[in-house]
Amino acid sequence: MIKPLLSAIALTVTLMPAVSVAGPATDALASCVADNTTGKDRKDLAKWVFVAMSAHPEIKPLSKASDAVKESLDKNLANIATKLITESCRTEAHLAFSTEGEKSFEFAFNALGRLAMQELTTNPAVAASFSNYVKYLDRAKFEAAFSGK
């Protein structure tokens, strides 16, 4: 029982698409998880996602995160998940898992991941970085595509 539960958490934190329909127990768990994390927790989650994604061979050269940093982020995320599921949201987690299954954890942690990304992208430097590519768009091609020519 615990292995599928932990796998569901690990998979979801990678920002997989959300479960399309959540039941009331899952909604309660997602709310509890969001309500019981701090901005620091969410930034730590975002750091973990960034470093985990940097394991991809095409992304790896862009990250200088050491094995020690990766291990520290893994441990920190494990502590956050453990606290949320076994303490802060224990009742909600138990009910969601027993009535709606593993998908409830995927949904709750996916919602937390989206919240973490939302917090990061509201930073002015991050927002500017996300829109920096626009200066390289071929505006003439866009105008032609939308003018029907």
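Second entry:
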Amino acid sequence: MTNQKLLTRGMVATLLAQFFSAFSDNALLFAILALLKQLQYPDWSKPVLQMVFVIAFIITAPFVGQIADRFSKGRVMLIANSLKFMGAAIICVGINPFIGYVIVGIGAAGYSPAKYGILGELTSGDNLVKANGLIEASTIAAILLGSVAGGYIADLNVVASLITCVIVFVIAMIANLFIPKLPAAKKDTSWHFWYMFKNFIAGVQNLYSQPLARMTLLGTSLFWGAGVTLRFLLIDWVPLVLGITDNKTPTILNAVVSVGIVLGAGLAAKFISLNNTVRCIPAGILMGIVVTCFSIQSTMVTSYILLVTIGMFGGFFLVPLNALLQHLGKQTVGAGSAISVQNFSEYSSMMVMLGVYSLTVALDISTIWIGACFGILFAFVITLLWIWQNKQ
């Protein structure tokens, strides 16, 4: 299939906007976690912080995808980053961090379907897999640098780390201005609340009725539910197993996972196409197995090796599934609406897994056992998903 040029001006602007937005997203999380630590919030409040962010995604899911399809997606991304800026800014001036993070979550919820949906408008065919590889690489590079910067600056000064996040959100907004104003995908979308809600439910039913779309939604939902749990598991695992109590070390370990995801995303872009997406599923199974192995070891060198491996399997698993859903969504319910359904599924999964993790922390269950059980369960469920898909 012949495709248009991949690295157009619009694609480059989208990659830069995503990089700076994701950089600040991740730096902000670790800056707020450092603030909670400074203010002596209880340990269970850390996953709860992420849960309030997740709630914003779940509540807005029926609407943000249709908004992304109703307007030019580059402008939707600009408005969404403006909300992130506002949320970070009010935390800087002393307003409750949970309130500010909810606003950031609403901005992120609006940003996601526009960010992924625009890829299908900027490119097509197998270039869509490559574009997803680039956007994931940009995101992971931002996670890598943002997480480390957030933790490092927070160790020096918590307020300085929060201000840094505000500044980088402004840079992301500037990058958004260089994305071409593409035509809206669905200009006739109604603004009636119940119409939008019923349209979202119809989109959920449509996608879950398609075997490939269902596999993608379940696969990415399990990935992100496990991924966000792994992030907080690392934060609690470091002082328990390694005896290190600073803010920087957990961010570095999270960043190491990001390096692996970049490598895995690159391999997926090279070896996986829209016609053979199911080949990525074994990587998800292996990811769960390696998470279990990581949980029960206790040396820094082994940690780096296993975390890079987890990231590689995760990137190889995730990128083709995202590309497939965008392709299927564009042909059926609209790319933006498909991503909003995906977000609803993924963040519902996160909500459940974070809730379970918060409960286990409150019950003082060992982080080591929590991680081992999550890894085994993830590998088992992905195996069942693979078997189910092969029977379709």
